[in-house]
Design brief:
single chain, 312 residues, alpha/beta, TIM Barrel, 8-stranded parallel β-barrel, 3-stranded antiparallel β-sheet, 12 helices, 38% helix, globular
Length: 312
Amino acid sequence: MQNPQGDIRARDRSAERPLSSIGVLLEGAIDYAGLFPPSAVPMADAVANYAAYRRGEYSWMLGRFVVTASRLNEFVEEAGKVLKTGEEPWRLAVVAGDDVELSTYAVVEFNAVERGKFVADVMEIKTSQREDIEFAHRLVPEDITAYYEIPLDQRLPELVATLALRDQRAKIRTGGITPEAFPKAHEIVRFVRACTAANLPFKATAGLHHPIRCQRPLTYKPDAVKGKMHGFLNLFLMTAFVRDGHHIDLLDELMLTEDASELRFDQTGVRWRNDYVLTLFQLEQARYRGIQSFGSCSFIEPIADLKQLGIL
């Protein structure tokens, strides 16, 4: 079985995470997806941002650089301009296109040519049926960890079972640039419970810019539509409570909470409403065996919000 811990710890560090519950919960948690909407910054800006984040105070929270397979050559051209001699290789999560075979070949060639500077050790593949998973599984090399984005409808149980039997991983889309792109809280809970029951690590993407569920503009345009956005703390803590198994009836409620004052982080763990406790060990297990990371087009926004809430 692939080692889930590798996704959290196999990363570059210019600063160690704080010795506290927030450090355990969010180490390496944010995959930087600045190329994707709503930010959609140019490649040159995205790689410059990532280089700065790697060397910054909160590098312990930074995960992989997210890029589509079709833009790998463009990435190499721009990232080569900011990569420093002797720097640890950048780790990439590559989003496959519609042609998964072509995307896989592009990643394999990229790794062969760019070894020592960059490594694409994760692929993200959109699938809708069991046959899609089985086809991609035959293509992706064993040294690349694949996350399969699966629908949240009636196909979920079969696809989770298929992934678990093949020792793969799942991916959930938690938002977008329209209100309709955000799944309901109970759908996310159902996904996490299914993955947990199958011992299936997973990642999330989209719509998780803010720590706590909130009403915000869904893009950065002045006239942007507003909508409810899920919070990444809600999701990570809900995942930990699923593994705890004692508060299943409260999971939807936790996903829907918008009051950050109900959460208390300290050196021993996290309390929700003072009555419900997660220890450091439980947080570690939620990351080790459950949620590996989330993709965000902003690395600054999550940090700024956590600082404003007094959590960082």
